[in-house]
Amino acid sequence: xxxxxxxxxxxxxxxxxxxxxxxxxxxxxxxxxxxxxxxxxxxxxxxxxxxxxxxxxxxxxxxxxxxxxxxxxxxxxxxxxxxxxxxxxxxxxxxxxxxxxxxxxxxxxxxxxxxxxxxxxxxxxxxxxxxxxxxxxxxxxxxxxxxxxxxxxxxxxxxxxxxxxxxxxxxxxxxxxxxxxxxxxxxxxxxxxxxxxxxxxxxxxxxxxxxxxxxxxxxxxxxxxxxxxxxxxxxxxxxxxxxxxxxxxxxxxxxxxxxxxxxxxxxxxxxxxxxxxxxx
Length: 280
Fold this sequence. Notes:
The protein is about 30% helix and about 30% strand. The protein is built from 8 helices and 15 strands. It has a 7-stranded mixed sheet with strand order 11-10-9-12-13-14-15. A 6-stranded parallel sheet has the order 2-1-5-6-7-8, sandwiched between helices. The chain has a two-stranded antiparallel sheet with strand order 3-4. It is globular and about 60 Å long.
């Protein structure tokens, strides 16, 4: 058994290798002048565990090539996708659309014996696969990081409430969520009901931070209500267009993400949670 580290999540691959006491395979990955990807596995492997995101686009092709190369040398190929890119288009919203989450599943499973997804945007994405799929939850790892640091966990919307509740149970604190009310086509009102946040240490937890607009507004509202300190955390930190800077400038005490996408804020590793599934 060896881990094949793709270009997109080397930190997670290294953490996983350390925890499982397995080696990282010798793999060559490079780009030709025209941008095309080249991969080569430089050793024989019986059981290959590939760690690679499907975000951004160039990492998708790299994943497919790593799978193809692994299938040619290994008897078993497991694929870990830390961040499942294209997962947010999980159904048809308007006629004529592609269901990208389903198409990605069909392509990925062609050269995979099993797949592990870490907090995909919707759990039902696993149903798009015909191969065995395990869902890894990074919330416990994030919650452990904040033990003793916060008095309550806040979800930025109702959809993330289950994460706030689970994290709060592990931390041993309260939880709540922002309720959104649309005022007009370009104005949304956000408020927390039935919770006094004054002088409290708060954690806002979401699955993905992309542009950071919702997170920034949530921080500003909590600051207005005189929260003592506000932490912002997510599983997948995309941080598009300096979103991290805007969040910190809004009054965030600390910004935390996991190592599903490697950034300066990857302070929590999901390697232990992934290792548990690989050892089943």
